[in-house]
Fold each of these.
Amino acid sequence: METPTNTDRKGKKKSFVVFDSVQKTYDGESLVVKNFNLDMDQGEFITLLGPSGSGKTTCLMMMAGFEVPTHGQILLDGVPITRLPPHKRGIGMVFQNYALFPHMTVAENLAFPLQVRNMNKSDVTAKVKRALSMVRLDNFGDRRPAQLSGGQQQRVAVARALVFEPELVLMDEPLGALDKNLREEMQFEIKHIHDQLGVSMIYVTHDQSEALTMSDRIAVFDDGIVQQLASPEALYEAPENAFVASFIGENNAFVGDVLELSEQEASVKLPTGQVVRALPVNVSGKGQKSTLSLRPERVVINPEPGTQPNILDAVVHEVIYMGDHLRTRFSVAGNDNFIVKTPNSFGVSRHKAGDKITVGWNVSDCRALDA
Amino acid sequence: MKKSFRKSALTAAVMLGTLGVVSAAQAQQPLNVVSWGGAYTMSQEEAYSKPWTEKTGQRIVNIDRSATGLAGLRAQVEAGNVTWDLVDMLPADAKIACAEGLIEILDHDELLSPAPDGTPASQDFVPGALDECFVATIVYSNIVAFNTEMFPADKQPSKIADIFDLENYPGMRSLQRRPINNLEWALLADGVPHDEVYEMLTTEAGLERAFAKLDTIKDNTIWWSEGAQPPQLLADKEVAFASAYNGRIFDAQVNENQPFEIIWDGQVFELDGWVVPRGKMDVAKDFLRFSTDTERNAAQASYISYGPARMSAAGLVGQHIPTGIEMTPHMPTYEPNFATALPKDDEFWADYQDELNERFDAWLAN
Amino acid sequence: MSVSMPGSQTNPESGVVGSGGATAPLLAADGRPLKVSLRRAMFKNKARALLLVSPLLIFLFVAFVMPIFSMLTRSVESNEVITLLPNTAMAVQAWDGEGLPDELTFAALAGDLKQGQIDRNLGRVASRLNYEYSGMRSTITGTARRITNLENPESWKETLIDINSNWADTGVWRVIKRESSGYTLSYYLAAMDMRYDEEGKIVRQPETRRVYVDLMIKTLWMSILITFMCFILGYPVAFLLASLPLSTSNLLMMMVLLPFWTSLLVRTTSWIAILQSQGVLNNILVAIGVVDDNNRLQLIYNQIGTIVAMTHILLPFMILPLYSVMKSISPSYMRAARSMGATGYTAFRRVYFPQTLPGIGAGAILVFILAIGYYITPALVGGESGRFITNFIAYHMQVSLNWGLAAAIASILLGAVIMLYLLYNRIVGSDNLKLG
C-alpha cells in the first residue's frame, strides 16, 4: 500500500481511494461482495460494471458510507473511513433517480450542501450560480425539479454533487432513466465535467457502452467478484476470462479441449472435430476445457486458402443490413450464432441465406480463456 | 364444494320454511311497541306481551326508543311514515305531542276496561294518570340511592339533605345531567317546604338558591345521562350516591344482590304510560285495552318495583315473581316511602325546561 | 344520440394543427370548422364521463347537499307564528310595539287559538314561542283550552288577560310580532349566547345562561389538542411502518388497524374500565405506591378522558395517510442529504420532514374534522368538562327538539371548519394534501 503523499507527475495523489479486501454480507450466509480490492488514483474515472446483483452498487454504498463492510477496509486519501458516517466523508453522490428534493427549488437543492456546511449567504449564491451555469441551466434556479425534463434533472443532480467541491464523486446508474439519445449526450457531458474539474469519479452502471465511453478504468463485476479491472481498450481487446469476453462487446465463443499448449499458441479441439489455433490467455494445461473468444469484426470471409491460420466452413443463416456495416449470422463448427461484421464498403459481396463459404481468423485474435 | 352446496340448500330450505310461517302470520301484523328498554321493557314483556301473544297470536316487537320518543314521533309524522303503533312516554312529553297533534286523543271510558268492581276507568286511575292523549300504567320515582359499603354501618345516610352533606357523607355523587329533580332536591335539602318548591323555582331568587345549593357538591358530582349508568357507577364504587329511577336500583338489589339502599325521602314521583301515534288507533286499541286492565296492571308490579297506576290494582300487588320478594315495601307508593314524596310538576317543566336547561348547562360549564 | 358525424375526420393530428392556426379557421374533412368537430367529439366523452359519475352525483345531492341546505334553512326558518296564528301575525303588524295591541289583534289571536285547538296544531307554535319566552307554552295551550267554548265576549283583550296575565306583557307581543316574518335570527343569536332583550335589541345572554360560545371554543381547542396528540403519537409509528421490512410492518399495521375492527362503544367502555378511579390504571398506581388509595386520580369523566379515548380512536386516521406518504418517499433523499454533509437530524428536518407535510396535513384535517364531529365518546367518558358542542347538537336534536337551534349551532360549526380549512389552504395549499 502506498502512502498518501505519493503523487504522480501532474501532482495527483496516488492511491486516493483504496478498497482493501472488502467483504460484505447482509444475511450472514452469502457474500454479496466477496473480495474487493481497488487502488484508485486521484482524478481517475473508474466504472463499476456488471449485471444487476453483482455487488457493484453495494461497493458504491460502502464507499458513500450507507453500508458498512463486513470485513476489510476502505481508505480515502490515506485515511480509513470504514466507520465514518456519510456526512463526514465529503463525497459527492448522484443517485439513480437523482433524489432531487422535490420540495425545494433547483437553486435551493444546490444550496443545500453549502448551507449544511454553514457557508455564508453570498458565497452560497455565487457558488450556486456558477454550478448552474456549469450545467447550462442558468435560468432554471427558481423551478421545482418536477418542472424540469429528465435530462435537466440529471444535470441538476450532477451540479448538486459537485457544488461543494468534493474530491470524489460517486454516481449510481445516473443515466438509467434517460432515453438513448439523451443518455449519450449526457455521457459526454459528464466526461467533459470530469476532465474539466479533474475530480475523481466512481461510476456504477450495467451499460457496457456507457462504461467504455467514459471510463479510465473499468472494474467488471460478477457474482461479487471483480472479474477484470482494466482500461476499456484492454477489456475489449484482451479480456482475461470468458465472462468479461462475453459481457463486454459482441463475442463468438467456442468451447473445446486443449490439445497442445505453448507460450504463444494453444490448439483447441472443438466437439465437432476441428482444431482451432488460439492465443493462450487463461488456460492451465493440456486436456483442460477452454472457451475460445473471437470478436465478430476480426473474422475474414472467404479467405484465400493459406492466408489465415484458422479456416473453417460456414453456412450463412441470415444477413442483416445495418447501414454502415453488414451483420451476418453463420453456422460454424456447431455454433449456430456465429456473427461476423463486415464494413459496408465498396465491393463487399453480400451473401444469401444458405450460401456455403469459409471464414478465417488470426491466432492472436482468438483468445483461449477459461471454460 | 359439495359441502357448501348442501349448506346453501339447507339455508334455502330454512328460509322457505320461515317464509311459510311469515305468510301464515301475515293476517296479523306484529305490533311495534316503543319503550325504555332494560328491566322496564322486560316487565312489560312478561306482564303484557307474552299473555297477549298467547291469547291472540299477534307478535309484539319491542323498540327501545322512548328516551328520544318525542323526537322520533315528530320525525315520523313529519315524514308521513309512522311505523310505531304504541309508545311509552312521560306525561310531559305526551302533553307536547298532544298539542302538536302527533298522537291520538283518548276517550278513556270507551277505550279502557272498567275495574273488576265495575268502576269506570276514568274513576279508577290515580290523579293525573289520565290526560287528553295519555293513559298512565305505572307510578315511578326519581330517588337517590347509595352503596351501603361506602359508609360505616352506624352512619348510613337517610335523608335527601344528606347528599349535600359532604362532611358527614364524603364521596362522589352522581346526578342526572339535567335540571329536573336536581333543582327540587336542592331546595328540599335547603329546607323549602314541599308545596313551595315549584313556586320558588319560578323566581330568580329561588333559582339562585337552588343553584347555590348544588354548587356545594358540584366538584364532587359525576353527571349521568343514561338510566343504566347510576347502578353501574354505584356498583363500581365510583360514587357513593347516585340519583336513579327506583326500578333500576330495585333490579340491582334483587337480581345482582348489590348492597344498595334507596333514600325515599324527597322522592320525586311521576307517571309513565301509553300514547297512540296519530292514525294508529285501530291497530293499537285492543292491546291498549288489554295492557291497561287491572289484572295486567297489577301483574307488571310483580316484575319491577313501579306502582300500578290503577287504584284497583294496588291491592293485588304480590310477590316479585323471579325471587319471591314481597313487592309492596319497594313501591314508591308504599305509605312509609311516600310520606315526603314530591309530585313532579309537568306544567312547570313544560314551560321552563328550555330556559332552565340552558341555565343548567351554563352553570355546569362555569 | 349522434354527436360525431359519420365521416367527420377529427383525428388528433388535425386537432393539434387547428389550435395553432389562429387566422383562418381550419376545416375538417367534412367542411365543418375543426374546433366545432373537436368539441363534438369531446362532448361524447364528457357525456359518457358524466353518465358514469351520475349515480354518485345524485347520491351526493340527496345525501349531502340537500341535508346541508335543509339544515341551513331550518336555522333561520320561523314559520310557526305565520302559519299557525295567521290572523294574529297579520293584525299585530299594525301595532307600534308600545303598550298593548288593540282589541282587533286580541280577537284575531282568540280566533287563531280556537282554530288551533280544533286542528290540534298549537303545540308547535307554543314550543317555538317558549324558546323565546319561558311560560308561553302553558300560556298558549292553557288559554286555547279555556276559550274553546267561549263565544264573542265583550272584550277579548280583557278576557284573555284575565285567563293568563302574560297577555298583558308587552314583551310577549313583541316576540309574537318579531316571529311573524317567517324568518328569524334568534337561533343564531342563541347559538352565540345572545338574545333579544325586552325592547327587542340584541344583547348578550346573562352570564348564567352563556353556554355555547365557550363550548365551541373549547371544542375547537380540544380537537386541535387531540389532533396534535395523534400527530405526536402517530408520526413515529408511521415512520416505523414505512421503514420496516414488509413482514414486520404488516404485523404492526394490523395492530394499528385493530381498533377499526372493534365497535366504538366497546373501545370507549374499555377506556372506562382502564381509567376510572377503581380502574386498572389507578389500581396499578396504588399498588406500586405512586398514588395514595384515598387520592386516586380522576382520569375519566373529564377532559383527560375525552382526550385519551378520542386520541386512541382517531389515531389510525393520522397514521394511515402519514404511512402512505412516507412509503412513497424514497430512502435515497435521506442518503442524498447525508452524502451532501447533513447530519441525520438536519437531513430529517430539512429533507424528510418537509416531504411528509402533505401526509401530516391530510391526517390532521381528517382527525380534526372527525374529532370536532364526535359526540358519543365525549358523552360517555367526557363527564362535564370533556363535553363537546356536538353533544349539544345531539341534545337539541333528540331531547329538547329545538331543531332550529341545533341547525344554527351545526351551521356555525360547519362555517368554522370551512374557515379553518381555507386558512389551512392559504398557509399550506390544498395541493399539499395527500391521502394516499
Amino acid sequence: MEFLYSIFSFLYQFGDAFAFLVLSSCGLAVIFGMMGVINLAHGEFILCGAYVSTSAAHMGLPLPLAIAAGSIAAGIAGMIVELAVIRPLYARPLDTIVATWGISMIVTQGTLIVLGTTMAGSGTPFGSFSVGAYSYSIYRVVLMVMAVVTLAALWLMFTKTRFGILARATIQVPHVAEALGVNTNLIYSLTFGLGAALAGLAGGLYAPTMTLVPTMGASFMVEAFVTVVVGGADIFLGTAPAAVVLGLIKAALTSWKGQFAGQIGLLVAVIIVIRILPRGISGKILKERA
Amino acid sequence: MSRASRFTSFLKLVEGPQTLGNGPKFWSGFAVVLLAACSYPAFADSYDVGNNVYFFNWLFMALGLSLIWGYGGSLSFGQTAFFGIAGYSYGVLTINLGDAYGLTLFSLVMAVAISALFAAVLGYFLFFGRINGVFLGIVSLSVTLVLERFMAQTAGPEWVIGKARLNGFNGMGAMPSLTIPWPGGNIVLYPDITLYYLTLALLVIVYLGLRMLVNSRFGNVLVAIRENPLRAEMLGYDVRKYQLGAFVIGSALAGLSGVLYTSWGNYITPASMGMTAASLPIVWVAVGGRSDLTTTLVGTFLVLIVFQSLTIHGSQYALVAMGLLLVITVLIAPKGIVTALVEFVSKMSDRRKSKAEEVR
C-alpha cells in the first residue's frame, strides 16, 4: 500500500509539473511556432492575466469568469502590442526579442509604480484531499485537467476551424495565402493575440496559488523557454511531448533533491537536447516524416 | 617580412574596415578625449572620480557584448551570468587568500579565467549544437535566471567555500579591494584617483586591443559570419569556432567587469544577475550602436550617465525610460542612436563638400 501511495505522489508531482510547463509555455509556443517571434514580454502577459483575474475575483466575479476576463485582457493587450511594435519588425526577427524585452521592462516597472509591490491574492479554492500520509490540493488537479483541455482546444482550433486553417496557410506560404485573399495582417494580429491570451490564461489559473508581485512573470519564464526550446516550433508534436519529458525530469529531481534541483535539471536537459536535437523534438519528428 | 614591418602592420590593424573612425582627425579627437579623461580628476572631487570608475567598470561588459552581438551576430542575454560568476569567484578567492603578496591580482586573473571557462563550456553546447540567434538568446537568459535563483537560495550556513559565506539574497561583502604589492607599503585600490587611472588605462588597452581584433582576420571572418553564415561556411570557415571564440572573449570581458565592480564596492549580490540587470547591457549596446566599438563605448557611457541621473531624480521611472528607449531605438534607429547620428553628420558633410565642388 505504501508503495502505491508513493506512486500516486509521484504521479501527482508529474502532473503538476506537466500542467505548469504546458500552461506557461503554450502562449509562447503559439507565437514562436506560428510567427517565429520570441516574445520576451510573455511573462508580462502572464502578469496581466493574473492581476486582471484577481481583481475581477475581488470584485465578486466567480473564479472561472475572472480567469476568462484575465485571459481576454491579456489577449487584447497582445493585439495592441503586435500592432504598435511587432508589425514593423517582422523582417528582423532578432530585433523583436529586443523590442519585446523593452516592453517587458516598461510593464514590470510600470506595474510596480502604479499598483505597488504586491497585490492581495484570492486564495487557493477547493481545499484538499488526502491519499496515504500526504494531502493534495484539489485545485492542482483542476490545473492538470485545464492543461489537457487547453491542448485539446488548441488542436481543434488549428485543425477544425476556418481561423486555424487560414493561420496555418499564412504561416506556411504567406505570399500565396495573401494572393488567395487571406488578410494576413489580421491573421498575424489574431495569432499574437491568441498567444497573449494563453499567457493570460496561465496567469489567471496560477494567480490563486502564488503571491502577486510585478516580477512574477519571470518565475514562469525559465520553464516556458525550456519547453519551447526542447519542443521546437510545433505545438502538438513539440510542446506537448517536451512537457511530458521535462515534467518527468522535473518531478523526479524535485522529489529526490527538492525544487531547486528540478530547475537545474531542466536547464541541463535543455542544454543537452540542444546539442543532440538542434531543432527540438518536433524538428526531429517532422524531418523523419518528410 | 622583417620583424619591424610585421610589428607595424600589426599595429595598423587598429584602423580598418570594421571600425568607425580612421585617419588623423579621428585620432586627434581620441587624444583630446583621452587627455580630458586624464585631467578629469584634477577638476572633480573624489566622489565624482569614484563614480566615474563605476561607469568605467560597466564599459568592459558593453564592449564584450558589442563583439558577440554587434560583430558576431549572436545575441546573448546572459552576459550578467559571467559578470556574476567572476564577481563571486573574486569574492570567494580573495576572502580565502587575503590581500597580501598581490594575491588579489591573481584572484582577478583567476576569476576572469573561471568565467571564460564557463563561457567556453556553455558556448560549446550552444554553438556546436548550431542553434540560431533566437534560441541562443533565450537559453543564455535562462542560464542567467537560474544562476540568480541559485545564488539567492544560498543563505544558509552550509553554503560556505573556505572562509567565504555566500549569504544568499543579501549578497556577499567584505572582500578586499584590488591591491598592488609595492615596496614600502601595498597600494590598495579604493574608488579613488589611483583606481581611476588604472581602470582608464585598462579600458584604453581593451578598446584598442578589440579594435585590432575586429580588424584582424578573425574579426573579418566574424563579420562575414554575421552577414551570411552559410556563405562563410561555404568559403571554408568553421563558423562554430569563430562564434565560440567571440563568445568566450566577450564573456571574459563581462567577467572583468564583474571583478572590477566587486572590488570597487566590496560587494556583490544575486540581483546583479537578475532580469533587470541582464536587460541593461542590451539597452546600452543597442542604443549606442552595437556594430561598432566606438559607438558602443560612447552610447554606453551616455546611457549610464542618463540612467544614474534619472535614478536620482525619479528613481522609479528610470527603468520605464530605459525600456522606452530600447523600444524606440529598435523601431526608429535599429543600428543605434549614436551610429545614426554619426551617419547623419557624415552625410551632411559629404553633401556640403559636393556642393562646394559644384560652386567651384
Amino acid sequence: MQTVLDKIKHLKGAYTGKKVDTETVILYQRKLMLNNMPPLPQDWITFLHAYNSLSHDGVSLFGLHPRDETDMDIVYENILIENIPHEKLLILGMDELDYLAWNEKAKVYQRIDKGSFEVLNTYKNCKIALSDFLSLE
Amino acid sequence: MLYLSKSKLPERLNAERHLVEAIRDKLDALANAQLKQDRPIGKKKQDTPPKRTKPKSITHLKNEIHLFLASVNIHPHRPEVEAEKANREESWLIRLDWDGKFHMPADTDYSEAYARSRQIISEQENQADGDKSPLLYKPEDYLLYQSPSWLFMRRFSNYQRCQPYIQEQLALQNIPPEIVRQMNFFDFSEVLYNWSKRHQTQPFESQRSQNFKMFDACYGKEFEQVMRMLNYKPEYIEEVRQKMQRGSCDAALNFHHKTNVSNFKELEKPHKINQFTNTMLTFVQPHHRTFHFGNGYDADPNIVFFGGYDKLYQIQRNPERERQYLQSNQQLMIRHADRSR
C-alpha cells in the first residue's frame, strides 16, 4: 500500500484533500450506517488517512466532508447517484465513464459502468483498485 | 432568462456564478433531504426549534433541478430509437479505445477456443524438459476478418491500425489460425496487451488523448477567451492548454460523452462513440454532474466546450476547422508511416 501512496504523491497536477483523523472516520462510519450504506473497508481508510479525496486527469475519488469545490463527499455522492443496484454497494470515486465501488457483500472493489451499473472489473484490494483506476505504473 | 449585453461582462459573470451556486445548492438540498443524521447529543426532541417552513420533499427538489436545467436549455435524455444497451464485450472495447488502459478480463471472458489454446501452449512451455516451441505460423496466416468481434473492432481506427500487431503476436503465441473465427474482444485485447508488453509501448494513442489535442488545436484560442471571461488566471489557463497539448487535462475539467457509452447504439454510426464529435469538454463540478443527474440530460450537440450555463461561456463547434485539422493530421500520419518504412 505504501508503494501506491508514494506513486500518488508523484502524480503531476493531482489535487488531494487534507488527511483525516481517526475520530472523523469513526463518526463517518456511523453516518454511513445511519444512511443504510456499507462501512468503509479498512484498506480504504488507510488511503483516506493519507489522501482525503483526490482529483487527477478525469478521475475523482471521494472523501469525508471535503471542503473544496472539486472535492466530493462519499455520503452525498451516494445519495445523489440514482439507481445504485443494492445497498451493499458504496461508490468511492469515478472517472468519465465508470464508478469505483466497494461491494460489501462480495468484499471486493469493482469498476462499474455509470450508465448500466454493469461490473467491468473486480479488484481484491484497495492497492490493486487504486493502481488500476488511477493508471499508476 | 434575461441576457445582459456582452459589454456588461462582470454582471454577466456574477449572474453565471449565481447560476452555478444555485445548482450546487439544489443538489446539496436534495442530498440533505435524504440524509439521516444523528440527533445532537443532549438534545431532546422538544428542544429542537420548530422549523418555519416544511422541508421540501425529494420529488419537489428533483423537479426544481429539472426546471432549472430546462431554463438553461438542458433537457432529459429521450432516446430517439429503441436501441440495445452496450453488452459487456462492447463496453470494454469502447473503453480501451477511449482511454487506452488495459484491464485484465475475468478468465470466463475469454472464448473457449482461445482459452484452451493459450493454456495448452503455456503448459508445453512450462514443462521441465520443454524448450521454447518453434514458431508454427506466420502473421499472414491469421485472417482476422473471420472473427465477428474483429469486424466490429476494426471500425474503430485505433484497432484497425493494430491489425499487424495482433497478427504478429498471435504468431508469436503459436495460436492456431483456425481459432480466429471464435476469438472475441477479450482475446484480442490480451493479444494486444502482450504485444504492448513485449514492445514496451502503447499500441495506439487513446481517443481521449487525441480529443484533447484536437480540442486545443481547433479551439484553444476561444477556450482561453472563455476562461479569461470566467476570471481564471492566465498562468492557470496556459497550464491547462499545455496539458491538453500533451493529451491530458486538469483535474477540474473532463470530457462528457454526449451519447453515453451504454447507449452507443443510438448513434447513427455507433463506432464513432468516442470521436470528438460525440464529446464535449466541461467542468467536473457541477456541470458534468448535472448532465448525469437522474437518468441523464442531453447536451447541445453543437457545443464543444461547456464552460457555463450562460451561452457566453460555451464554444460552438466549427466543423470546417475540425475537418481541416483531421485532414492535416491524417497527412502527417501517412508521412510518418512512409518515413518509418
